[in-house]
């Protein structure tokens, strides 16, 4: 067999970084991590937890996953590295760990949006993650055999940059072709590739399959061009590996400089891993960004990290590693402290300015320095220290000891999850990382580094420009939720359910009330607001049959119910968002054969007199009986009607008055009365309104009337009081997390 050239060996070794980086870029940080966090939060929300507690629990689950896998990696790495040294054969191990990588990442396709199998998927993620990190141990132990000793630093740094660029390319592909936005389209306006169902989040879930396929494809150059070095002695077994590991530990401890370096490295690298593992999850659960927004931000931060890794290498070469490490650590401590003090509504108690999403913009400013200085730390790797040991056959153990502090586990994520779970504050999860960074802020003098990362030249210019543009741009205004839901013309193909509250929510599986039924007609069809929960449609059918028995009525004219998927409306109501509100016209429905055009032009009738203090001559006993029938239905939570109508019903009712409790006086509501139903049984994501006060409520209604007739003097305004704030329009992130899948459903 012809000898493989050094150039090919180097490129083959680099391609491992290109092939494996998507596990960290796509799965850990920017795509799967945030997706899993949203799925887990929705799952815990369905169990009865409130939104904040559900998000904190989701972050805790992710924390423990990273912690457990990190412990496996950290404590298994020294033994694995020792075995690599004594056996002298690394490629078979790399092949085995590659199978773990591919199987684990590929299985993530099955992570269901309802969270029904999230524990199995966490196990799959952990399997692939352990495989990726263990493979990296063996890859790094091959480094001294890839090229000449004086080129080791250059090869390592360039491979690091090459891998980062591969992660960037894979992230761009996912965003452009697969990850769906709330409108079901990808970042460039396409449907998810390969006919994937946006409603089932298949575009986002494809990240696991892409990561697996990417690895299989781009590991081909590695397996073609990289070979194990010829063994220098007889291969050993487990017992010999343990003995050699013990000797290596003693040798490290005997060198105070290296021992101190490994100790401090373990602390600050673990803090970095905690931050990287939680960056996307934090943006999802605290800032409430969607995955596409996180991904775009990820491209900016990856470019920032790459260019500043290069600058860090230059500084390392000029000043030595210790100043680079210490300056980077202090910046990271500042980042951690600031993250603790901010969420999407404030930063250290200061609300955002008008028209911008300041905390989200600040997160961009914070995360980019975090990535920059984190990459500076990562670029100062102990390659030269490892190379200074003889014989070369001990490199596996030394790399594995270094990995004890870089296994993405140990204290960082574990402390994060302890904070997240114990106090329910998601942003506080970053606080322990700051402490761990500080604990590792005093490495001993390592001397002048003899290398600096040699990044791809093109990346230097591109990354600087991209970062400048990204940091200069103000926070882009998110589309308003009413625009997203107002654009939907059909219901979602999901199980009927209501999410959130009547004035801040959405609904899945809504049913369209037929335009004309035996005892009703839907009005103002051009609005497309005749959609309701199946319970709502059944209520209308039942009540309209009762109304048809009243003299002069053939049924009911039905006004607005809800939009096809609920949510805020472009005009009109603040409520009617979860398919459980119904406007019923006061006009007697004596003609159920009106055309669509007639139903657009005809108007209801007003029943009020004297600004709502009294009913007028249009009020009839039939109105009383129809509203009474609606209130007596067990599904009814309350009915809104103008005060004069409630007082009139109180005066006229001679029988059982208990139903009057549900009839509530309210402004307007003289052309129609508004029925609000209770949340359907087993609708765990639906929030009921508090029940009306006890009693028939007639005295309260009379107070309303008295205040209309003789308005009380206005309360003097406090001149020192701040001006009232204008009501903020909701964006999608303000609504329950389930509303994303409601919008994305076909």
UniProtKB/TrEMBL annotation:
Predominant location: membrane
Pfam family, one: Peptidase_M74
Pro residues compositional bias, start-end: 710-723
Entries under InterPro entries matching the protein: Atg22-like, ATG22/LtaA_families, MFS_trans_sf, Peptidase_M74, Zn_M74/Hedgehog-like
Keywords: Hydrolase, Membrane, Metal-binding, Metalloprotease, Periplasm, Protease, Signal, Transmembrane, Transmembrane helix, Transport, Zinc
GO molecular function: metal ion binding; metallopeptidase activity; serine-type endopeptidase activity
Annotated compartments: Endomembrane system
Claim: Transport is one of the keywords in the record: yes
Stretches that traverse the bilayer: 21-41, 61-84, 91-112, 118-139, 160-179, 206-225, 252-271, 291-312, 324-342
Protein name: Penicillin-insensitive murein endopeptidase
Source organism (scientific name): Falsiruegeria mediterranea M17
Organism classification: Bacteria, Pseudomonadati, Pseudomonadota, Alphaproteobacteria, Rhodobacterales
């Amino acid at each position: 067999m012809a000898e493989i050239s050094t150039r090919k060996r180097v490129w083959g070794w680099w391609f491992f970084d290109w092939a494996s980086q998507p596990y960290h870029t796509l799965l850990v940080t920017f795509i799967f991590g945030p997706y899993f966090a949203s799925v887990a939060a929705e799952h815990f929300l369905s169990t009865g937890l409130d939104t904040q507690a559900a998000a904190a629990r989701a972050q805790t689950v992710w924390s423990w996953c990273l912690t457990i896998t990190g412990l496996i990696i950290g404590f298994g790495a020294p033994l694995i590295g020792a075995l690599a040294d004594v056996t002298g054969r690394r490629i078979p191990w790399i092949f085995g760990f590659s199978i773990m990588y591919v199987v684990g990442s590929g299985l993530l396709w099955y992570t269901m949006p309802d969270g029904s199998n999230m524990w199995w998927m966490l196990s799959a993620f952990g399997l692939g993650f352990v495989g990726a990190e263990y493979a990296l141990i063996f890859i790094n132990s091959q480094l001294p055999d890839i090229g000449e000793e004086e080129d080791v630093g250059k090869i390592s740094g360039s491979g690091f940059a090459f891998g980062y660029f591969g992660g960037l390319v894979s992230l761009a592909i996912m965003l452009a072709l697969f990850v769906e936005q709330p409108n079901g389209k990808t970042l460039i306006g396409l449907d998810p590739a390969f006919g994937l169902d946006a409603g089932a989040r298949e575009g986002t879930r494809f990240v696991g399959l892409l990561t697996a396929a990417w690895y299989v494809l781009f590991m081909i150059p590695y397996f073609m061009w990289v070979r194990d070095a010829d063994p220098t002695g007889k291969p050993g077994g487990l017992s010999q590996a343990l003995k050699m590991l013990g000797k290596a530990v003693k040798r490290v401890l005997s060198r105070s400089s290296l021992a101190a370096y490994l100790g401090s490295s373990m602390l600050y690298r673990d803090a970095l891993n905690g931050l990287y593992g939680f960056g996307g999850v934090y943006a999802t659960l605290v800032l409430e960004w969607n995955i596409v927004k996180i991904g775009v931000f990820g491209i900016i931060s990856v470019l920032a990290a790459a260019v500043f890794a290069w600058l860090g290498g230059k500084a390392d070469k000029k000043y030595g590693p210790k100043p680079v490490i210490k300056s980077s650590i202090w910046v990271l401590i500042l980042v951690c402290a600031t993250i603790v003090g901010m969420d999407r509504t404030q930063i250290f108690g200061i609300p955002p300015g008008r028209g911008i999403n300041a905390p989200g913009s600040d997160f961009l400013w914070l995360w980019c320095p975090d990535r920059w200085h984190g990459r500076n730390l990562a670029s100062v790797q102990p390659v030269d220290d490892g190379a200074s040991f003889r014989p070369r056959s001990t490199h596996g153990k030394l790399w594995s000891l270094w990995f004890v502090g870089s296994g993405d586990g140990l204290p960082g994520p574990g402390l994060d999850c302890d904070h997240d779970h114990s106090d329910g504050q998601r942003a506080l999860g970053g606080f322990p990382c700051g402490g761990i960074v500080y604990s590792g802020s005093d490495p001993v003098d390592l001397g002048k580094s003899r290398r600096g990362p040699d990044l791809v030249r093109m990346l230097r210019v591109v990354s600087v420009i991209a970062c400048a543009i990204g940091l200069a741009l103000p926070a882009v205004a998110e589309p308003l939720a009413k625009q997203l839901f107002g654009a939907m013309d059909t219901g979602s193909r999901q199980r009927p359910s209501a999410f959130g509250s009547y004035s801040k929510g959405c609904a899945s599986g809504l049913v369209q009330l037929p335009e004309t039924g035996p005892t009703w007609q839907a009005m103002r069809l051009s609005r497309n607001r005749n959609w309701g929960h199946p319970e709502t449609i059944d209520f209308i059918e039942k009540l309209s049959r009762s109304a048809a028995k009243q003299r002069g009525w053939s049924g009911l004219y039905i006004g607005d119910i809800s939009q096809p998927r609920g949510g805020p409306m472009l005009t009109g109501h603040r409520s009617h968002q979860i398919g459980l509100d119904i406007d019923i016209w006061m006009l007697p429905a004596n003609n159920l054969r009106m055309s669509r055009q007639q139903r657009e032009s005809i108007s209801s009738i007003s029943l009020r007199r004297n600004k709502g203090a009294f009913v007028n001559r249009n009020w009839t006993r039939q109105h009383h009986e129809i509203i009474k029938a609606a209130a007596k239905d067990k599904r009814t939570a309350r009915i809104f009607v103008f005060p004069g109508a409630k007082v009139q019903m109180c005066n006229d009712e001679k029988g059982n008055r208990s139903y009057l409790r549900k009839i509530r006086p309210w402004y307007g509501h003289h052309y129609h009365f508004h029925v609000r139903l209770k949340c359907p049984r087993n609708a765990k994501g639906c929030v009921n309104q508090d029940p009306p006060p006890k009693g028939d409520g007639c005295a309260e209604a009379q107070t309303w009337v008295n205040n209309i007739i003789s308005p009380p003097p206005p309360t003097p305004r406090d001149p020192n009081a701040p001006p009232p704030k204008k009501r903020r329009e909701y964006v999608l992130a303000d609504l329950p997390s389930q509303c994303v899948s409601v919008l994305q459903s076909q």
